[in-house]
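User: Teach me something about this protein's shape.
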Amino acid sequence: MSDPAVTTIQAEALGLLEWPRLAEQLASFASTTAGQRACLALPLPENLEQSQALLAETTELLGLDGLTAAAGGAGLSFQGVADIAGVVAHCAKGGCAGGESLLDVATTLAAARRLRRAIDEPELRPVCTALLSALRTLPDLEQRLLFCLEEGGRIADRASAPLEGLRRQLMEGRRERRDRLQDLVRRYGALLQDSVVSERNGRPVLAVRAGAASQLPGLLHDSSASGNTVFVEPQTVIALGNRIRELEGKERDLELEVLRQLSGLVGADGEALELLRSILVRLDFALARARYGQWLGAVRPELSDGPSAGFELKDLRHPLLLWQQKREGGHPVVPVTISVGESLRVVAITGPNTGGKTVGLKSVGLAALMARAGLFLPCTGSPRLPWCAQVLADIGDEQSLQQNLSTFSGHIRRIARILEALPEPGGLTDVGGVPGPGASLVLLDEVGAGTDPVEGSALATALLKHLADRARLTIATTHFGELKALKYADPRFENASVAFDVETLSPTYKLQWGIPGRSNALAIAGRLGLSEVVLHQAAAQLAPLGEGEVNQVIAGLEDQRQRQQEAAEEAAVLLARTELLHEELLLRWQEQKDQSAELQEQRRQLLEQSIRKGQQEVRRIIRRLRQGEGGIGPGRGGPGSSDLGETARLAGQRLKRLEQQHRPSPERREHRGWMPAIGDRVRLLALGKAAEVLAIAADGQELTVRCGVMRMTLELAAIEGLHGEKPTPLEPKVQVQVQGKRGLGGPGPDVRTERNTVDVRGLRVHEAEAAVEEHLRNANGPVWVIHGVGTGKLKRGLRQWLDTVPYVERVSDAAQGDGGGGCSVVYVK
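Assistant: First, the predicted structure itself:
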């Protein structure tokens, strides 16, 4: 059985961390009322395997929801799913459900079958597919319900042959009564106040003047408030009305019989329907988690089964504050980075009030709970943390007038319950009263506060040392300077602080690791105009205690870190600008080179055209000489004919030599060892046009080029350089490429970001290759290529092309959290 004290302190921690408020925000993303209730409950799994299964469900449905939305839809739809728990339980006990409730069962079955078709994909979504393996959509029951029920839950005529015949009789009787009443309206129109047939007590009546009621035989049902009008059911339709009433009673009995039969069918499949309902609720719960995480811009955490695993939470933002920022126009949320190694046990956060210490505490606590509940974390990179079986907290003012407790007493009572809930040193964390593996996270706000500073400091020091032996991680905020020195005596302790801008008297909400916070009381008092005499006396009181020297050391450390941070940022900006300038220079040099080559080519072609025209003119002159034009006939041997012929012959030889001199000569212009590189511009011999090299085969004998909108693969002998160079395969050389914008840390981490991700869904293969190649040139690490699943044609085409790219080391499918088979990771050399 679960220990009530342990359960109580864990429930208190959830309340202090505002876990119910986060559940309400999550519930707004659910598609069904049952899913909303599941989100509001937001249960915490009792072991790591359950949490990992929830994270897998969230990841799989996030990818499917994105694919569905990308295809032009609104994402994965739960339309038609109703909360059938009540009607199924009622029918299982032998009750008779209404037509509308039974129709909800039919629409839910149809929606379940549609969702199973959309989700069922063992390779892409193994966890959700396994969840659906036990699902029975009961098509026979669905068809029977839809056959017998119409919109709104009305019993259809086809549901029963006797019912259909009875309703036909009813229709004929009502039509006959309507005709008789209309005939009476025409015959007794002068006696009536109105020609409209009214209804009283479920019977048709005519509005007759009070003085003429005796002239229309019938049954009086009612009169008007003034008494001038009486409502009479004519005698000629009374018997017919009685017959209709009798038929209506039989109709209700037959309808009730149909509903009993349908309810019996539902009750017979009660277990299958209840299982179907629970699976749909779990899927809606998982989809809500996925959409909530996507809305937050969150990423999937990695949970470790080792209780001593470290915490790596980069740029963690408080989810509730992030909601305020996005939904309510609040202030931007300042992220905090938590980096705790395996040997670290206690982190003491110091700094001024309203500096963000408590927000940092709650952010870490909520992150541990969210990861355990299958939610993504509002971080960057790849967050990693242990599976926390216990998140215990003492946050806020515990003063209670009803219980006659001071703030200090309230804190001590809660801390005592926290110590009781923790396992013994070296033991296992207790979850729900059953011992099991898992880490314990303890969050203490203003530990030791509310009493004498000396005693409070001593108590806080002893408490943190005790917690270091029993909890995986304790994060405590404090104003006690003595706690800052624990780090230097025990390697399990670490200091952190929230930064404060003394000039503006405002916190920056940034968490600084490794540096304790310093007291800013005197500086703030001076800025607020307190007397210098008082400030000097206060400083003199601190001097014997060494507080002034400690604060000076801390201030120096803060200034040094700030200078290092500014220098690093300036260096990063300078490096980025240098690389951009270098790329711009290379681009302009290449453009000038291409323009010069094209200009030379144009001039050469113009010269060749002039030479050809000259040759044509020489041939024309020679023909004229041979034909005797210009007064010189054949054989006449006119004066100067031989000289003109010789001159023409010499001119033709001269033009031929000029043509040979200006024509690109492979022998004369060949550059030994020249080989085009990716991105170079070459000339296609068959077309005489310039093209850009996109890829080169591994053996160097073929290459892929783009000429205008055309893309083709050619042999090496089919191209030449813009200056006439003939390609010759060379021995592989190490090529140094200018990388894109990077930080000071060298190659980027193998983490998917917006900068190293390219989405090529919807593109043709050659268009996708061009987009991927542009990212690969500037890659500073792996590149994630989102191509989707579809028919697989785009993926196969990209993989075949990437196999020919020389600077690609390998290609593999992305992790499930990054897209799985719908995304490829390209590793460059």
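Now, about its shape. The CA atoms of residues 43 and 373 lie 7 Å apart. The chain has a mean pLDDT of 81. If you'd like, I can walk through any region in more detail.
User: That's plenty for now, thanks!
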